[in-house]
User: Which sequence fits this backbone?
């Protein structure tokens, strides 16, 4: 016996006043309604209804059972309604994990807009460079650069970033020459602990050939901002996403090294555990953040290419869609 269904049938009989009326409301036969109620009474080992040819009435036990069942079914309906609404409208708490650098440069300004767009959504942001287990640690979403992690995760590319290799002018003045990737073997390099290939830096040369350099150094950390500051203070060569290096480059604290060699471009992913039954809060935020990143990249590209745009016109198609190159940060 489906106890929940039996409770619904019983309450409908009481609400409508007869088995026939309950059967009509539930779109089942009268005999089926009678059978549900009889099974429920048998299960409870108590008579719930007094039956006559003209009417039905609740017994004392039936009255007590009806009051509790009606209240419980109303609460259950409210719960189901709330869950259903959450599946359609973004609300509740969205738990996000990402790195400190990405959060400061991108997630923080995006959240300022997201809070206005989704007033019923709360945000819990955990900042760490490590690849956390989303399911095990209860996260809804990760924003990651490079490798996604588990193959069971869903990853949506929302942009790209380029690695830059930088060092301070003071460091370079005192260090051995640095003209090719192989020269890095003689340099003190600052290592990011969560790099997938920590200690292996890749470049594409002017001739299109791939160059790999095995590097080492006396300082490593799980925080890119700390290592960036170390590089700015003359402590070595650092490889980092350009959004972390850019303010230090603009301030003249560091300069690019090996600028004739193209650095790796890494994808930026929004990662979540499962595509099936994806919650509205994750779906809505990923769509919002993807668009926000695209607009940010386009705006940055226009700023950096203003002179060329003035001379040659905008480098976008008629629909205003920017090329993939515009998505690099």
Assistant:
């Amino acid at each position: 016996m489906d106890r929940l269904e039996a409770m619904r049938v019983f309450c409908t009989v009481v609400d409508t006043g007869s088995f026939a009326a309950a059967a009509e409301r539930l779109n089942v036969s009268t005999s089926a309604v009678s059978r549900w109620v009889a099974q429920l009474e048998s299960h409870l080992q108590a008579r719930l209804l007094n039956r006559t040819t003209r009417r039905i009435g609740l017994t004392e036990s039936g009255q007590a059972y009806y009051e509790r069942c009606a209240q419980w079914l109303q609460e259950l309906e409210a719960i189901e309604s709330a869950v259903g609404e959450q599946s359609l409208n973004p609300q509740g708490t969205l738990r996000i994990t990402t790195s400190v650098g990405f959060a400061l440069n991108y997630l923080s300004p995006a959240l300022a807009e997201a809070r206005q767009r989704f007033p019923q959504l709360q945000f819990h942001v955990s900042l760490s460079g490590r690849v956390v287990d989303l399911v095990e640690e209860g996260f809804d979403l990760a924003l990651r650069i490079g490798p996604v992690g588990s193959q069971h995760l869903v990853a949506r590319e929302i942009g790209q970033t380029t690695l830059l290799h930088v060092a301070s002018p003071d460091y370079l003045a005192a260090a051995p020459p640095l003209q090719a990737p192989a020269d890095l073997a003689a340099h003190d390099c600052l290592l990011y602990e969560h790099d997938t290939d920590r200690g292996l830096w890749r470049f594409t040369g002017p001739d299109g050939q791939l160059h790999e350099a095995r590097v080492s150094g006396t300082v490593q950390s799980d925080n890119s901002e700390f290592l960036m500051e170390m590089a700015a203070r003359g402590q070595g060569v650092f490889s980092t996403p350009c959004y972390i290096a850019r303010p230090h480059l603009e301030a003249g604290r560091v300069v690019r090294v090996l600028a004739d060699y193209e650095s790796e471009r890494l994808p930026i992913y929004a990662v979540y555990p499962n595509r099936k039954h994806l919650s509205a809060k994750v779906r809505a935020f990923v769509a919002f953040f993807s668009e926000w990143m695209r607009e940010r990249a386009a705006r940055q590209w226009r700023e950096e290419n203003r002179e060329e745009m003035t001379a040659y016109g905008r480098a976008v198609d008629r629909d205003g869609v920017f090329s993939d190159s515009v998505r690099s940060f």
The chain has two domains: 3-88, 93-329.
